Structures
1.
Amino acid sequence: MENPGFGRFFTDHMITLRYTEGTGWHDWKLEARKPLQLDPATMVLHYAPEIFEGLKAYKLPDGGATLFRPEANARRFQKSAERMAMPNLPEELFVESCRALVRADREWIPSAEGASLYLRPFMIGTESALGTRPASDYLFCVIASPVGSYFKAGAPAVTLWTSESFTRAAPGGTGFAKCGGNYAASLAAQAEAQREGCDQVVFLDAVERRWIEELGGMNIFFVFDDGSLQTPPTTTGTILPGITRDSLIKLMKDMGLTVREEPYSIDQWQADAKSGRVVESFACGTAAVVTPIGQVKGRKYGFTIGSGGAGQTTMRLKAALTDIQFGRAADPHNWLDRLF
Ligand code: PLP
Ligand code: COI
């Protein structure tokens, strides 16, 4: 609990809920965490009907605990389900399941600086059949894991790899959905990045291979020398609309900062980093929180952003967000869902 890393340890309980065509959702259970039994023909093992979410429970200064915008995760889960032809899970069932698990496993919320309890709600198609069609039966499950930093603690910034061989999402595909297949498909690129000494891939659009989209599991922001910020728009359907991204945009507006949701090309990023027009860049997500980007590499690219470490605006935004999440600052947007 002092240094849990990310997703290596799990709590004592889980939530399960079943769906059957014709009956709907049934058999909600809070139970001891245990292995799932699946027939080898279970659809998720073959055609991957799987979607998931990620959100955190935070310990508050008074000993209480809170979730952060769980209804936003519930709504994104519904959009992912719709894209994957999976059943709609009512928002209240999603949120109540998360709340119930945190209450049952409250001893597992870490109190180390920056640490939290990561919740992983997911849904899988459980019908046993090999026809390619939507499954008739599903399992919704929530598990939890005490987590610290997603990246190795102490690193001032991450290094990104620009892949020329791989893309993450194409128009009309599943980029905006949080389905396991997107992540499976990103792993060869991630392995390539690691071979090249980088931490994460920055994915470019699949059509022109020019526009910056996002990282394998995080959105991206650029900070300009005039104090303004920019992030790629999610209207293309190829980028996951991050809840951290959305929250940061609202905080930037609260602070009076200018923020644009506009396309930005990799060539422009390189030119702007070299000329000093871009002074900072960062990645953001539930797992990554706000992580400075120090360097970008690729066969055609190589540049350092600012000093290569954590920038001022990045750290100010990180503090603003985490101060709300950990109850150290007021919560003007009512983002906290207090559990006890
Ligand atoms: N992009 C991808 C591909 C992700 O997996 C995530 C993480 O959930 C994000 C962005 C950030 O989303 P959020 O801030 O909702 O965690
Ligand atoms: C999250 O931030 O919740 C994610 O799902 C990203 C993943 C890479 C852990």
2.
Amino acid sequence: MIGRVNHIAIAVPDLDAAEKSYGETLGAQLSSRQALPEHGVTVVFVKLPNTKVELLHPLGAESPIQSFLDKNPSGGMHHICYEVDDILAARDKLLAGGARVLGDGAPKIGAHGKPVLFLHPKDFFGTLIELEQV
Ligand code: CO
């Protein structure tokens, strides 16, 4: 069901420092910043030959990233995003298998303008999973 790794997301407490680290120290190509108020984040994509890394920074008072950074003040890996062909079929199969989908279960539009869903980390070995329909 799942396909390629679309991206790996890292929550960062300081977006300027993360851009400098990935852009200069690690010498990667970066996207411009993108504010996603519906998700409570500002994102920057690190473009790699085989995938992307998503740098996540809290946006707004209700950001889900803030509580993660409260527990991990220096930042940390936040989620991994796998591609799926049909997000509603994937969701229904997961729900039928007992996995928990976060929120109301309806896909939201993610950073690439495509539908995304998040799966409960406790159902997947402590890792938050994002599914993106491509
Ligand atoms: Co993501």
